[in-house]
Amino acid sequence: MRALFLAFFIIFPLSFIGSLAQENSVNSLFPNVAKAIGNPHPEGSEYWRINHPDLLRHDRDKVVRDGERKIDASIKQCVTCHAVFGDDEKPVKADSEQFFCATCHEFAAVKIDCFSCHTSDPDVNFLEEALAQYNPNSGISDKQIEMMRAYLLKEKK
Asked: What are the boundaries of each domain within the chain?
């Protein structure tokens, strides 16, 4: 009886948990974030992942309160380098689950309020610059790059 109890309530659950751990790697626990185009952040992605709210607020204050237009953490640049294009070959909007910011913000249950004022469309000039710096080893699909180029051509007309 004791052996049956051990097998059913201890060994079976532990083997089940072990098989789940093998099926679901650690990476599957986190959101699948789209790759960015352009040069990587000099401070590193992890730094920006942690500090982007403070950096964006700081630079917002420099623009709004001090009138300074040359800033480091421009939301326009963020949206452009991290643009994701949908099946319709247009950039997805801020209310889409595919939108770069939404990927992590949904996961962390944090509301994005930037786009009640700002556009979520990539800036044509920044996109052109980012495409010029494109590294084929960045992990962005060829299809995404082609959609970006097509969007750029259409918007520049």
From this structure: 1-29, 31-156
Q: Give the pLDDT of residue 56.
A: 87
Other Cβ atoms closer than 10 A to 105: 15
Residues 41 and 50: their CA atoms lie apart, in Å, by 13
CA distance 10 to 94: 47
41 or 72: whose pLDDT is higher?
A: 41
What distance in Å separates the CA atoms of residue 118 and residue 87, rounded to the nearest whole number? Answer: 23
DSSP H helices, the chain, are 2-6, 12-23, 45-66, 75-81, 100-108, 124-132, 142-156
Q: Residue 89: which region, alpha, beta or left (left: phi > 0; alpha: psi -120 to 50)?
A: left
Dist CA 36 CA 52 (whole Å)? 15
